[in-house]
TrEMBL record:
InterPro entries: LSM_dom_sf (IPR010920), MscS_beta-dom_sf (IPR023408), MscS_channel_2nd (IPR006685), MscS_channel_TM-2 (IPR011014). GO terms for biological process: transmembrane transport. It comes from Okeania hirsuta. It holds the Pfam family MS_channel_2nd. This is Mechanosensitive ion channel MscS domain-containing protein. It is found in: Membrane.
Length: 365
């Protein structure tokens, strides 16, 4: 007996699906090559800061980025070659895995950004790094990444996440009402961070008599180490936004030294007159501490063996910025001219050294 073998009349080849798979594979290969060559391109084209950020944030997570890309390509390929109704369970599983890995990748980026990059940037710029704010920033970034991942997954799989959130709205309002004091403290922490009336290690004073060094600025409260007692005072942030804060560290004090040379011996009575004229001429200069103005007289001889008296005048100028300090220095120069004219009216001749000597002096706390 002769057996007959039946051959299919035609073999159908879906070229469009093959092209789709090929295109997806090419795109995946290109993405991998770009990720590998990206550091060299960044160093050649982009600034040093961006290159440094890439090395700290992106480079350590190359393997995780590759996993995310592989899962994404697998899901896209699956949807391109097979109807969704046949593979929806596998697709949902891949999509869930992709969402989890992408969320984890985003959290790793946030961790490197806040725990490494910002701290190193603060050290390079000689700024004080507030670890509490970095923790808060990292928490907010992770929360945003998680919420976005849930919303994207829900929207791509026809899950009405906004309806679920709306159904929980009443409970959310109740929780917010119960935690309004905590929320007020959290908002106070944000205000302190934006306004920055003080930073860590500043010495501050409050209207209730509290005075000390700021040890930390948290999300809900600020810790102050009391001067003298050494006790730790914890103050809610919303209270600090409603009171006057005196920042002693932020103030600047410049010591201005002025020398007057009298080409004769000045007796005690004339010294008292000179001291009175100097104090009266500078009493109306805003920003000068009149109580700390110091005037000393010293008798000596010059190179010609002539008896002379030299007066050293020390002023303390207070200010909070470069513009205010420059303005007060100019006012002090005008006051020096008034001193010169007034002493000449009393017939007291002298020479004044130019320019005055300015020395930064720390605030005494």
């Amino acid at each position: 007996m002769t057996e007959t073998i039946q051959i299919p009349e035609q073999i159908v080849i879906d070229l469009s699906k093959i092209l789709q798979i090929f295109a997806i594979a090419v795109i995946g290969i290109v993405v991998v090559i770009v990720i590998r060559k990206l550091p060299e391109l960044i160093e050649r084209i982009i600034s040093t800061e961006i290159s440094e950020a890439y090395k700290i944030i992106i480079s350590p997570n190359k393997s995780l980025i590759g996993v995310v890309i592989a899962i994404a390509i697998s899901e896209i390929t699956l949807l391109a070659v097979t109807p969704y109704s046949q593979v929806y369970i596998i697709e949902i599983t891949l999509s869930l895995i992709l969402t989890i890995t992408t969320t984890w990748l985003g959290s790793q980026f946030a961790k490197k950004f806040f725990d490494v990059y910002l701290i190193e940037a603060a050290f390079r710029s000689d700024q004080k790094a507030n670890s509490d704010l970095f923790v808060v920033g990292k928490f907010i970034a992770n929360f945003i990444i998680l919420v976005l991942a849930i919303i994207i997954f829900a929207q791509t799989h026809q899950v009405n996440v906004f309806g679920i959130i709306a159904s929980l709205g009443v409970g959310g309002v109740a929780v917010a009402f119960a935690a309004q004091n905590t929320l007020s403290q959290l908002l106070g922490g944000i205000v302190l961070y934006v306004d920055r009336p003080f930073v860590v290690d500043d010495y501050i004073g409050l209207p209730d008599g509290t005075f000390g060094r700021v040890e930390s600025i948290g999300l809900r409260s600020t810790k102050i180490r009391s001067s003298g007692k050494g006790t730790l005072i914890i103050i809610p942030n919303n209270s600090l936004t409603q009171v006057n804060i005196e920042n002693f560290t932020a103030a600047k004090k410049v010591m201005s030294i002025l020398y007057l040379t009298f080409y004769r011996q000045v007796d005690i009575e004339e010294q008292a007159l000179i001291r009175q004229v100097i104090l009266a001429s500078t009493s109306d200069v805003f920003g000068i501490e009149p109580r700390n103005t110091d005037i000393t007289f010293k008798n000596s001889q010059n190179s010609n063996l002539q008896d002379i008296t030299q007066a050293q005048i020390t002023f303390f100028i207070l200010g909070s910025g470069k513009v205010s300090m420059d303005l007060r220095r100019q006012m002090l120069d005008n006051a020096s001219q008034r001193i010169t004219l007034k002493l000449k009216e009393y017939g007291i001749a002298f020479d004044i050294e130019q320019p005055s000597i300015y020395v930064d002096s720390p605030i005494t706390v």
